[in-house]
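FIELD: query
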Amino acid sequence: MALNVGCSARPGKSRANRTGSWRVFRPVFKHDKCTKCGICSLVCPEGCIEQREDEFFEADYEFCKGCGLCSDECPAEDIVMEQEEK
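FIELD: result
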């Protein structure tokens, strides 16, 4: 497989790689103060936060790297980062 200069992988391949196994912290969605604004989903660089049927949001831990952006940007402070237990 030949890659172009500056390209490390073909587009569209990241969802095939489960990257959550090396996470140190993970976001925990409390849903106590959540206003269902969706900012967490918008700022997630991995695109692994999705809206459930009840309109609350959850992260797919198979792909979440634990960066904390969702927690940092949550206006309701409803997402907390907890240390991953292995």
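FIELD: remark
The chain is about 10% helix and 20% strand.
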